[in-house]
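Quick one:
INPUT:
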């Protein structure tokens, strides 16, 4: 019987680990110029406007999605987002700017949900005074 003493802690840890990982990181306030990127993304997504979404990216920008090959450049990004849209909500939980490069780490959800259903990393480049997305990598929480 002694050899089974380790099983109960393992079972308990396995049972509660999803609850521990479900904790949502707090949001941070972004500088206006970075918040503008997220707001435009949400707006164009809500309007099912693939062309406008693609124009938020650098000319050689990427989208990196689960179970998909990397997508690069405005034309391919527009094609990838062609049938995308809905009530997307983006929020940041970290960011940094250094010169003409920056990033935003955040979570996303849809509609009236309050908990994040996924997370993202945006790598940003400032091009001619405007912050553009160079890489958008996201994945769901499930």
């Amino acid at each position: 019987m002694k050899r089974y003493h380790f099983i109960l802690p393992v079972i308990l840890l396995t049972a509660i680990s999803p609850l521990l990982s479900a904790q949502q990181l707090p949001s941070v306030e972004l500088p206006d110029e970075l918040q503008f990127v997220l707001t435009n993304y949400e707006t164009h997504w809500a309007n099912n406007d693939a062309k406008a979404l693609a124009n938020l990216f650098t000319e050689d920008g990427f989208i990196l999605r689960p179970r998909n090959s990397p997508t690069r450049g405005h034309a391919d990004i527009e094609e990838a987002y062609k049938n995308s849209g809905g009530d997307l909500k983006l929020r940041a939980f970290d960011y940094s700017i250094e010169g003409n490069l920056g990033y935003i780490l955040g979570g996303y959800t849809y509609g009236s949900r309050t908990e994040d259903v996924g997370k993202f990393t945006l790598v940003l480049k400032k091009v001619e005074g405007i912050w553009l997305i160079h890489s958008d990598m996201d994945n769901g929480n499930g």
